[in-house]
Amino acid sequence: MRYLITGATGFVGGHLAERCVRKEHTVTAIARPTSDTRDLDRLGVTIFRGELDDPALLRQALADVDVVVHCAAKVGDWGPIEEYRKVNVETLRVLLNACKGLALTRFVHLSTLGVYAARHHYGTNETEPPPRTHLDSYSQSKVEAEQLALHYYQEFGVPVIALRPGFIYGPKDRTVLPRIIGLLRNHAMRYPGAKGARALNTIYVENLLDAIFLAVQREEAVGEAFNLTDGEFVSKRRFIEAVADALDLPHPTLMPPLWFAYAATWISEKIARLKGAKEAPQFNFPRLKFMGYNLEFSIQKAMDQLGYIPRVTFDDAIRETMATYK
Question: Which domains, and CATH codes, for the chain?
Answer without folding.
Answer: 2-170+200-231+296-312 (3.40.50.720)
